[in-house]
Design a protein that fits this description.
- This protein is mainly alpha-helical.
- 78% of the residues lie in helices and 0% in strands.
- The chain has 16 helices and no strands.
- Helix 2 packs antiparallel against helix 3, helix 10 crosses helix 12 and helix 11 runs antiparallel to helix 14.
- The protein starts with a helix and ends with a helix.
- The relative contact order is 0.15.
């Protein structure tokens, strides 16, 4: 709601400043009882950044360029997932953890300084939807009074539930996220079985997944909108499921090559899904409602991340990591196949557009 109601640039700047301050506070906490609340508050402040960033992108970018913008954003994010852990590991070889935290503070402040150079008078943050314009599709807020926060929150949920395409996309993403998060935090357990004497193998998988995501995002940026939501969202899940199931089928002592190939497939599926998902939410949402839609989406997925890792840990203890990866790989693969086969029912308007262009 803040992203829809307040100045988006100012909100992103305050997120960077407060996150930097809370990161620096980690160096001062005396014990775990202080550490956990500071980490929780830091995470809560950081959560404001995503809706603000997505809402700002939706306000600035023309609709015909949204896919390219989503691809470039995803390319930066996935590239950072490759470079970040590598730079972090390198920093820890020459610096103490405290100095690494201090470096993180400096990077946050650098991000804040970069945002100061953005001067766009058109961005006033007074989104049209705060006046209830999402109900009639208008983007004009002239003569309107801002809605109360409670009513804004209800309006965001109402908009998602009434929009069939958005509702189906959210539910499809939620089902996949629940299955993926169950195994996502169990990769360490899996590699303790697959390669107990090769600690580096998990790092190679992560690097390969990052490279696969970057490649898929670059390809999507070239293909453009020629693929419908069904192929992009369902195809992404199908590749993720195939990779997860394939990892579960690997025998103990597996060689590096199949791990790298499955990592590339895993990353490609992840990159394809994330870009298609974010693009869909941006394209199908009015600019004044984008912050709330992405905020609700982030909240729902974060709720999944509370329960799913606990359930995954219980299942791995019960049946073993290879068995769980194999079975949930099949579940995710079938979900992706269902998305492709049922695309005309789940995303009918988008499918008609793709058919017309073909």
């Amino acid at each position: 709601m803040a992203a829809d109601r307040l100045n988006k640039l100012q909100l992103m700047r305050w997120c960077d400043l407060l996150t930097a301050a809370l990161t620096a506070a980690l160096l001062l906490v005396p014990n775990m009882f202080w550490l956990l609340p500071v980490l929780a508050l830091r995470s809560a402040v950081s959560a404001l950044n995503v809706p603000a960033q997505q809402s700002l992108t939706r306000s600035l970018v023309r609709e015909d360029q949204l896919l390219q913008a989503a691809s470039l954003n995803g390319l930066v994010n996935q590239s950072s997932k490759i470079a970040g852990p590598l730079l972090g590991g390198l920093a820890l070889t020459v610096l103490s953890p405290a100095w690494c935290i201090g470096f993180n503070v400096c990077m946050r402040l650098f991000s804040y300084a970069m945002l100061l150079f953005i001067k766009i008078n058109a961005i006033d943050g007074k989104a049209a939807a705060v006046c209830g314009s999402a109900r009639n599709g208008s983007d004009s807020s002239e003569g309107c009074k801002p809605l109360p926060f409670r009513q804004m929150w209800k309006e965001g949920w109402s908009f998602i539930l009434r929009n069939r395409l958005l509702r189906n996309t959210m539910l499809f993403g939620l089902l996949g996220a629940l299955s993926i998060q169950i195994v996502d935090f169990q990769f360490a357990s899996l590699f303790l079985v697959l390669a107990p004497d090769k600690e580096y193998m998990l790092g190679w998988l992560v690097a390969a997944a990052g490279a696969g995501a970057v490649g898929a995002i670059a390809l999507l940026n070239k293909i453009g909108r020629s693929l419908g939501y069904g192929l992009r969202l369902g195809g992404g899940y199908a590749m993720i499921g195939a990779a997860v199931g394939g990892l579960g089928l690997l025998p103990p002592g597996a060689a590096a090559l199949p791990v790298l190939l499955l990592g590339l497939l895993l990353g490609a599926g992840n990159g394809m899904f994330i870009i298609a998902f974010n693009y869909c939410l941006q394209k199908e949402t009015p600019p004044g409602m984008t912050g709330r839609v992405f905020g609700i989406q982030s909240m729902v997925l974060s709720t999944v991340m509370i329960a799913a890792p606990l359930l995954g840990g219980f299942l791995v203890e019960l049946a073993g990591p290879r068995e769980i990866f194999g079975r949930f790989g099949v579940v995710i693969l079938l979900l992706g196949a269902a998305g492709i086969l049922l695309s005309r029912w789940l995303w009918p308007a988008e499918q008609k557009r793709v058919d017309a262009e073909a």
